[in-house]
Amino acid sequence: MPLASLRRQTLLDLLRSQGGMSTKELARRLGVSEATVRRDLAALAQQGLLLREHGGALLPEAEPPYALKLEQHRPVKEAIARRARELVPDGATVILDSGTTALALARLLAGRPLRAVALDLPIAQALAQGETEVLLPGGRVRNGFYSLVGSWTEELLGQVRADLFFLGADAFGPEGVTNHTFEEAAVKRKAMTVSARTVLLADRSKWGKRAPAFVAPLEALSLVITDLEDPALKARVPVEVVRGTL
């Protein structure tokens, strides 16, 4: 295989593992100039194998980098988190899914007298204050995204009995909740089975989209907290609408 083809295949492999990368970081990892990387990105984009972004690239349907997720739609996520906080009584056992909307909720719950199972590392760190007891189910950490996945995570979750599971999603639509990775989807389903209620926290930017890994139908949810006003959603599951600005 020609050198350029090998390099471009390695570039695609890096994007698959990280979800998205900057031109500068790709150049460093590949040991070539940024100009070479830009030429490779242009060639691969022309073939439909990746999406070029300002200063970098993503795979089509790839999960956005964590740092980008953290900044996206922050006011809406905080509004959703404030409403979700009202559902949690002192003394409750709750599971918080991985993701940045659940992180906003974790910051509001931190220090309260409750037991919280955290499905990613930033959430555990945010919760570990005051009277809050934080449990980590172990497993493998997804590099760059910090969520816990794998058989260890699922096995230890099986020993939990939670009052509430606050579920995150990469996408949701009429067919249900979906996610970018099958490993995370499996962990989400396990958390649902050990929780009395599952509450989806999702802003309207995720509605009507579909990621590769199916999590659950809308009917399996107890409630959706969102900024989305859509009769099609309300016909399928209880919805509480918050006000926010995307």
TrEMBL record:
The keyword Chaperone does not apply. Keywords: DNA-binding, Transcription, Transcription regulation. The keyword Cell membrane does not apply. Residues 4-59 form the HTH deoR-type domain. Pfam families: DeoRC, HTH_DeoR. It comes from the Bacteria. InterPro entries: ArsR-like_HTH, Carb_Metab_HTH_regulators, DeoR-like_C, DeoR_HTH, NagB/RpiA_transferase-like, Tscrpt_reg_HTH_DeoR_CS, WH-like_DNA-bd_sf, WH_DNA-bd_sf. SUPFAM superfamilies: NagB/RpiA/CoA transferase-like (SSF100950), Winged helix' DNA-binding domain (SSF46785). PROSITE patterns: HTH_DEOR_1, HTH_DEOR_2. This is DeoR/GlpR transcriptional regulator.
